Amino acid sequence: MKSIRTGWERAWHGRAKGRVAPSQRVVVERVQGLLEAGEFEQAEAEARALAASPRTRGGDPGLVSWLARCLAAGAAAAHGRGAEVLPELETLIAELEQTAGAGRQLLLVVRSNRAGVLVQQDRHTEAEAEARDILHGTTRIAHLVKVWRIELNALTSLAGALNGQGRHEEAEAVARGNLSRAEGRTAAFLHRALVRSLNGQSRYEEALAEARRQTPAGGRAASGTLEIVTAGALHGLGRRDEAETTARQALAACEQFLHPAHPRIEEARTLLARVVAEDPAAE
User: Is this structure's pTM higher than 0.90?
Assistant: First the structure.
């Protein structure tokens, strides 16, 4: 259920921004706009073109390449191709671990994306360890740069990893403790993590009420997430017809907006099959 957010948000501004040529800066900002609009395919294509472009006078070619590759891999992961780009993320991490300054900030962004992929791949123990280490990393550079977006993304991965391990009370604490300071897509995913944690504790009435509370939609990257956790709460309450309808809506949204390889599509299918199989009317 966890989505990959491209993570870096505005992380490249400041020290990194000054090392990117104006023409490249325009491309980076356009790619970022495409990502925020959920245009993952176009964002990835433009980012990869930037990474492969000739050296531009006035910019740092190494940083530009890392920025572009980070954006491209983040876009592919957000679309649902996390397993495909995981080796690319790990290569980027290995390269950025040898850097300082802006590279260290970007390293945390790439690691945050990796943590999200690990949650998607049900590698929850690894994802938890990665998220906690990212949080330690943000404290080390918080006096130098703004890292709250990276921190919130790591906390979202942490909540997903805890839910995936059945540690729902811990996941609830993480989600509740940080939801009020999150916004946009991050708030949407923390909210879904909270509902999932309540479902995991069989607190279905609370989960349903929370699911129906007005929250950010989360954009294309969050397609199907609210419907999945809502269907889970309805199913737990024995409201099978509503659960089936909502699960079908989740699957339709996932299939329409996400890459066919996105793990959330299989999650929606599995949920729908379980609801239908347990419905006496289906026998």
Answer: no
